[in-house]
């Protein structure tokens, strides 16, 4: 008997269409429906990708007989309602980050997923990018000893100035927008997988763009972990100048650095680049084939398609878990990770508001 092809409904016509649809297809999952608020836009997206159903109702998507899995790529303040509904319908769910509007919503999402017995995942595709996966493995192998100091920095000018456009929700703190949610959530997940759980933090959120957003476009965060590492996360999406990014993690026996696609180990024997094992490698980026779907400056973050293969790995990992197989490669982030992430995100916002050190 032929193996059943898994079917998915994609909720969201922005990032959901640009990346989720292509990654699901890359993973061998049939996209049965796409759901959006604007009927004309949703129909256009469905036509471009030959998706059978263009819908404006989540309920209608959940009722489709061939939908096993739902991906959620809508504004963060809408995630809880959609995720809970999908779980209660018995659908496996992948929800984007920022995970929820607050910790209470995040906990409700996890409770619904566990009660329904579905496979649940968080959209942390960076876990499946080769440099992060190689560095995480090197740290777990003890190549630098116990990590004691870490810095994660990314400065870029994409949203600098007044001409940069973002989706309405992204510029609105009340809807969970901002660079903290869009990017820091990835880096926080990275630190948790590499360095362990956070025990405390202090943070400052800033807006450099001058567009009058209520949400941040830049952040500085100091954190400590239960394993004795202290670190700094600093990033801006609106800093003029050439893009600059680096990750460095140091322990007694050495330093791991992520520099672009390279992972470099420095220790007493010298400096060398770590090889990428075949199972952690990704294919070449897959640029968006239809540039007309990129409507804002924010959309261009994903036009290069470097996230398609990592997301495809995430979806394959979900299918393996659904089918009772042990996934290979990096661990799949679940809604439990989403709750841990949301607890940290809420503490960051409190710290910024109160200028306090937050104990977790």
Word description of this protein:
The chain has 9 helices and 15 strands. The chain has 360 residues and is of the alpha/beta class. It is 32% helix and 23% strand. Helix 1 (15-26) crosses helix 8, helix 5 (103-116) packs antiparallel against helix 9 and helix 7 (179-195) crosses helix 9. The protein has helices spanning 15-26, 39-49, 58-62, 79-88, 103-116, 130-140, 179-195, 308-322, 335-354, and strands at residues 7-11, 30-35, 53-55, 69-72, 92-95, 120-122, 147-155, 198-206, 218-225, 230-236, 244-251, 254-259, 262-267, 270-273, 358-359. The chain starts with 6 loop residues before the first strand and ends with a strand. The protein is globular, with a radius of gyration of 20 Å. The strands form 2 sheets. It has a 9-stranded mixed β-sheet with strand order 14-13-12-11-7-10-9-8-15. Strands 3-2-1-4-5-6 form a 6-stranded parallel β-sheet, with helices on both faces. The model has no long low-confidence stretch (mean pLDDT 94).
Q: Strands, helices and their partners?
A:
Blueprint: E1 7-11, H1 15-26, E2 30-35, H2 39-49, E3 53-55, H3 58-62, E4 69-72, H4 79-88, E5 92-95, H5 103-116, E6 120-122, H6 130-140, E7 147-155, H7 179-195, E8 198-206, E9 218-225, E10 230-236, E11 244-251, E12 254-259, E13 262-267, E14 270-273, H8 308-322, H9 335-354, E15 358-359
Parallel strand pairs: 1-2, 1-4, 2-3, 4-5, 5-6, 7-10
Antiparallel strand pairs: 7-11, 8-9, 8-15, 9-10, 11-12, 12-13, 13-14
Helix pairs in contact: 1-8, 4-5, 5-9, 6-7, 7-9
């Amino acid at each position: 008997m032929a193996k059943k092809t898994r079917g998915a409904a994609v909720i969201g016509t922005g990032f959901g269409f640009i990346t989720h649809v292509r990654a699901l297809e890359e993973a061998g999952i049939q996209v049965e429906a796409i759901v959006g608020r604007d009927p004309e836009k949703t129909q256009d997206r469905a036509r471009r990708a030959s998706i059978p159903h263009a819908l404006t109702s989540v309920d209608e998507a959940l009722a489709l007989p061939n939908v096993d899995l739902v991906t959620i790529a809508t504004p963060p303040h809408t995630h809880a309602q959609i995720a809970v509904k999908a779980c209660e319908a018995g659908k496996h769910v992948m929800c984007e980050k920022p995970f929820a509007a607050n910790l209470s919503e995040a906990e409700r999402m996890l409770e619904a997923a566990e009660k329904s017995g579905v496979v649940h995942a968080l959209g942390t595709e960076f876990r499946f990018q080769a440099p992060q996966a190689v560095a995480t493995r090197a740290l777990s192998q003890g190549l630098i000893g116990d990590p004691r100091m870490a810095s994660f920095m990314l400065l870029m000018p994409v949203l600098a100035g007044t001409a940069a456009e973002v989706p309405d929700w992204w510029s609105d703190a009340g809807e969970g927008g901002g660079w903290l949610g869009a990017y820091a959530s990835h880096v926080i997940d990275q630190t948790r997988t590499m360095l362990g759980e956070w025990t405390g933090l202090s943070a400052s959120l800033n807006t450099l763009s001058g567009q009058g957003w209520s949400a941040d476009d830049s952040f500085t965060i100091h954190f400590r972990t239960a394993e004795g590492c202290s670190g700094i996360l600093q990033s801006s999406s609106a800093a003029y100048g050439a893009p600059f990014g680096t990750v460095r993690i140091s322990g007694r026996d050495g330093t791991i650095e992520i520099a672009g696609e390279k992972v470099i180990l420095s220790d007493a024997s010298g400096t060398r680049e770590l090889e990428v094992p075949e199972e952690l490698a990704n294919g070449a980026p897959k640029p968006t084939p239809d540039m007309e779907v990129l409507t804002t400056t924010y959309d261009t973050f994903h036009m290069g398609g470097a996230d398609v293969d990592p997301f495809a790995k995430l979806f394959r990992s979900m299918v393996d878990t659904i089918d009772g197989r042990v996934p290979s490669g990096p661990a799949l982030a679940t809604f439990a990770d989403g709750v841990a992430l949301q607890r940290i995100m809420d503490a960051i916002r409190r710290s910024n508001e109160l200028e306090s050190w937050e104990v977790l």
